[in-house]
């Protein structure tokens, strides 16, 4: 019999996924240390305050965490979607979903509109500040009467000489109170139906006619500020329109792909942290003469949850990898969002259960994480809507 | 002035170390590895000396399997200028490492070697001292403060019961203690830049050193499990228990 030479393989940079390179591993190491030492010990106060201090965002900017995929000329690192997934996962592990989403909306849901759709002049104007954490961004698509159905939006932008006049209300806008720059979707063609006739505008804080209607009080994500934004004859220069007129819907759809990978990665970071919290708890908590860990019913459920999280995490990496290669991965991304948004809630429920009464007290991290997890199956593409996207592509 | 900083790849300090079932060592398969924390402090100190204009070049050296190159990369991302990897699958012990470092010091001619006082895997606390002896150089171990002036280094040492300050004539070996500094983060742009910094890979034979171990590990075992604590009602009961149960007084 012939002997077959084994195929020579390069040793992977780490065992999480074969596509990770050494710089991914180093980025994760730095993020993990940053979260452990500069976030977890102090973030409880931000939950009460309702926002993350600017200092912290600037510090993250200085370390390059806010410019992972952006051009080097503006201070970015020109890395890839896998690195973005690592950022989201590690911020998710912080146990403070509100902190994580404050950063991730800025880096991966709002500023990509400028990075992808902006002209060179527009990018040069704002990107360096965005990457440095000096300019914080928000994205305003959802309206009181149009959420999942993006094409149902009614906010209008009427051309008036060299300007547009924006009128309408946006709802549930993360970073809405504190952002310096908001990317607003509005109808530029009142005649066009549905997805056509929408454009994106960069609107700076303090622009006359633009105001915060109210800050919204939420079940979770308490350290993230969320607002209703009002545009009342808000005059925005045509130079602030991002991309071609009436093509905004496609920009939104494109950015949704990235947003959903990020939300999936964040959710799986949270799920890993919840399992770690539960493990620590059940290993020391005693009942009926033994630790809870010694009860097979408990450790087997934790074992199965860990397996499901490991599988979902690989799906996140797979989608991120496809995206980094430039492949259309709407199917995988929709699967990620549907799966991770639900799974993180199942993990949250079980891990809170294993904590017993302690899991119901505000002083336990798991209690906060349960509240934070709830929105993961609603925001950024609700599970039902994501499943429709998956179903369409099942062939 | 050149500074040489040896950096060791060890099991990450967050990992709960497990002993291999056959008792030959600790489990490293699939375990997260990182730079020895004391070595991070050494890199940080070297980078600060460079930022102050005292040092002109920092060389990071690691010895062991090919993945030690990643540990060097981390040092480069923190601010070291270039790296040397002495690649070997041999089980490296302090004397072999010190001998190889000596040959590298002879070749590179640094004025200062800054290194961790010990590695958190085997806690030997020996390599720095051995290197200083082999070179015939001054040594300042367990440093919590280092000041360089001309051809002198003033090193504050953490010793049992307090601090000791020694004046060393350069060249010298300094080993770092925990309180010397707080290592910086490697920023993402610096991580990207580090990819382009050179790492030279050589073998122990290139240094004329046989790295074969001189010490034999007979058995590695878990320490005994910590017993649950007890509450005592009074000082008298505590003293009695210390005498009869713990047998420490
Ligand atoms: C905390 C938070 C932060 C947010 N941040 C932002 C932000 O920064 N910017 C922004 O633009 N938006 C933001 N959103 C909005 C978010 O994206 C929307 O809430 C989400 O898209 C769902 O829209 P909706 O709330 O209008 O729900 P609806 O669209 O009214 O949906 C209600 C329910 O109906 C289900 N449903 C809808 N369509 C179908 C269907 N075809 N078949 C079956 N079921 C269906 C949905 O799945 C959901 O369960 C945020 C929301 C929250 C809660």
Automatic annotation (TrEMBL), chain A:
Which superkingdom, per the lineage? Bacteria
User: Where is the Acyl-CoA dehydrogenase/oxidase N-terminal domain positioned along the sequence?
Assistant: 22-134
* Obligatory cofactor(s): FAD
The protein's matches in SUPFAM superfamilies, at most eight in alphabetical order, are given as:
Acyl-CoA dehydrogenase C-terminal domain-like, Acyl-CoA dehydrogenase NM domain-like
Which intervals of the chain form a coiled coil?
A: none
Domain Acyl-CoA oxidase/dehydrogenase middle residue range list: 138-234
Q: Residues in domain Acyl-CoA dehydrogenase/oxidase C-terminal? A: 246-394
Q: Which UniProt keywords apply?
A: FAD, Flavoprotein, Oxidoreductase
Entry protein name: Acyl-CoA dehydrogenase
From TrEMBL, chain B:
Which UniProt key words apply to this protein?
Answer: Electron transport, Transport
Q: Which SUPFAM superfamilies match?
A: Adenine nucleotide alpha hydrolases-like
> Recorded GO terms, molecular function?
electron transfer activity
UniProt entry tagged with the keyword Electron transport: yes
Gene3D superfamilies, sorted: HUPs (3.40.50.620)
- Extract the InterPro entries matched here: ET-Flavoprotein_bsu_CS, ETF_a/b_N, ETF_b, ETF_beta_N, Rossmann-like_a/b/a_fold
Signal peptide start and end residues? none
Residues of the Electron transfer flavoprotein alpha/beta-subunit N-terminal domain: 23-211
Q: Which cofactor does it need?
A: AMP
UniProt keyword Electron transport, yes or no:
yes
Classification via PANTHER family: ELECTRON TRANSFER FLAVOPROTEIN BETA-SUBUNIT, ELECTRON TRANSFER FLAVOPROTEIN SUBUNIT BETA
Quaternary state and interactors: Heterodimer of an alpha and a beta subunit.
Q: Any idea what job this protein has?
A: The electron transfer flavoprotein serves as a specific electron acceptor for other dehydrogenases. It transfers the electrons to the main respiratory chain via ETF-ubiquinone oxidoreductase (ETF dehydrogenase).
Name the protein family: Belongs to the ETF beta-subunit/FixA family.
Protein name listed in UniProt = Electron transfer flavoprotein subunit beta
Organism annotation: Acidisphaera rubrifaciens HS-AP3
């Amino acid at each position: 019999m012939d002997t077959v030479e084994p195929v020579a393989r390069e040793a992977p940079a780490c065992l999480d996924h074969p596509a990770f390179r050494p710089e991914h591993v180093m980025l994760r190491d730095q993020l993990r240390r940053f979260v452990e030492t500069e976030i977890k010990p102090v973030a409880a106060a931000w939950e009460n305050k309702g926002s993350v201090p600017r200092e912290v965002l600037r510090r993250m900017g200085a370390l390059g965490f806010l410019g992972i995929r952006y051009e080097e000329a503006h201070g970015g690192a020109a890395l890839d979607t896998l690195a973005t997934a690592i950022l989201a996962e590690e911020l998710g592990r912080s146990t403070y979903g509100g902190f994580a989403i404050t950063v991730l909306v800025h880096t991966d849901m709002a500023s990509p509109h400028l990075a992808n759709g902006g002209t060179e002049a527009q990018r040069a104007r704002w990107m360096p500040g965005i990457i440095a954490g000096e300019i914080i961004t928000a994205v305003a698509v959802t309206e009181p009467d149009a959420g999942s159905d993006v094409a149902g939006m009614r906010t209008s932008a009427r051309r008036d000489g060299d300007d547009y006049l924006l009128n309408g209300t946006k709802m549930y806008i993360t970073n809405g109170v504190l952002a310096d720059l908001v990317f607003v979707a509005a109808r530029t063609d009142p005649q066009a139906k549905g997805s056509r006739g929408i454009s994106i505008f960069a609107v700076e804080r303090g622009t006359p006619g633009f105001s915060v209607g109210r800050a919204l009080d939420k079940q979770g994500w308490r350290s993230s500020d969320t607002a209703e934004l009002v545009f009342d004859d808000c005059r925005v220069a045509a130079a602030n329109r991002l991309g071609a007129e009436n093509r905004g819907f496609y920009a939104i759809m494109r950015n949704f792909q990235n947003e959903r990978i990020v939300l999936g990665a964040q959710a799986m970071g949270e799920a890993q942290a919840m399992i770690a919290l539960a493990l620590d708890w059940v290993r020391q908590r005693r009942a009926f003469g033994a630790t809870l860990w010694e009860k097979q019913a408990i450790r087997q459920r934790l074992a199965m949850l860990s397996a499901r999280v490991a599988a979902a995490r690989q799906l996140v990496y797979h989608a991120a990898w496809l995206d980094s290669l430039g492949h259309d991965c709407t199917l995988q991304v929709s699967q990620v969002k549907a799966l991770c948004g639900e799974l993180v809630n199942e993990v949250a429920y079980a891990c809170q259960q294993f904590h017993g009464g302690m899991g119901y007290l505000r002083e336990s991290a798991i209690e906060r994480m349960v509240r934070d997890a709830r929105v993961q199956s609603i925001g950024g593409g609700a599970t039902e809507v994501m499943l429709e996207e998956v179903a369409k592509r099942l062939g | 002035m050149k500074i040489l900083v040896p950096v060791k790849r060890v099991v990450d300090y967050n990992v709960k170390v497990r002993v291999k079932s056959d008792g030959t060592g600790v489990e490293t398969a699939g375990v997260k590895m990182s730079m020895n924390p004391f070595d991070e402090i050494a890199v940080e100190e070297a980078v600060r000396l460079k930022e102050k204009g005292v040092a002109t070049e920092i060389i990071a050296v690691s010895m062991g399997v090919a993945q030690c190159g990643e540990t060097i990369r981390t040092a480069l991302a923190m601010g070291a200028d270039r790296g040397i990897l002495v690649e070997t699958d041999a089980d490296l012990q302090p004397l072999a490492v010190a001998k190889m470092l000596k040959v590298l010091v002879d070749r590179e001619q640094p004025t200062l070697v800054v290194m961790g006082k010990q590695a958190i895997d085997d806690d030997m606390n020996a390599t720095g001292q051995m290197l200083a002896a082999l070179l015939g150089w001054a040594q300042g171990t367990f440093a919590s403060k280092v000041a360089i002036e001309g051809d002198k280094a003033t090193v504050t040492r953490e010793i049992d019961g307090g601090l000791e300050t020694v004046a060393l004539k350069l060249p010298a070996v300094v080993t770092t203690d925990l309180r010397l500094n707080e290592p910086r983060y490697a920023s993402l742009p610096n991580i990207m830049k580090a990819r382009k910094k050179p790492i030279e890979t050589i073998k122990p034979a290139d240094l004329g050193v046989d790295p074969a171990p001189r010490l034999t590990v007979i058995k590695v075992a878990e320490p005994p499990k910590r017993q649950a604590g007890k509450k005592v009602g009074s000082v008298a009961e505590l003293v009695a228990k210390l005498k009869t149960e713990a047998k420490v007084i």
